[in-house]
Design a protein that fits this description.
This protein is mostly helical. The chain has one domain. It has helices spanning about 15-25, 40-50, 60-65, and strands at about 5, 30-35, 55. Helix 2 packs across helix 3. The longest helix is centred in the N-terminal third of the chain and has 14 residues, at about 15-25.
């Protein structure tokens, strides 16, 4: 399996995030693997889908809730 990562340390601006996704998608055959906080990965995943880029490791429902600040344990 090839490794192609976009990391989310800190808050990335949406335009920079889109640009990184476009470059990574072009370089890695239209698919990317995302790393970083649940909040970052959620935003990046939405952007990737809008751009037609496949996310190899989409965030789970539990992670998605955390990215929105929802405590799903209650």
């Amino acid at each position: 399996m090839s490794r192609h990562l976009i990391s989310g340390s800190g808050l990335a601006r949406d335009d920079a995030l889109r640009a990184a996704l476009v470059v990574a998608g072009a370089k890695f055959g239209g698919e990317v693997r995302l790393t970083g906080s649940a909040e970052f990965r959620g935003r990046a995943e939405q952007q990737a889908r809008a751009l037609g880029i496949r996310v190899i490791n989409p965030i789970s429902g539990t992670e998605r809730g955390k990215s929105r600040g929802i405590d799903e344990g209650r």
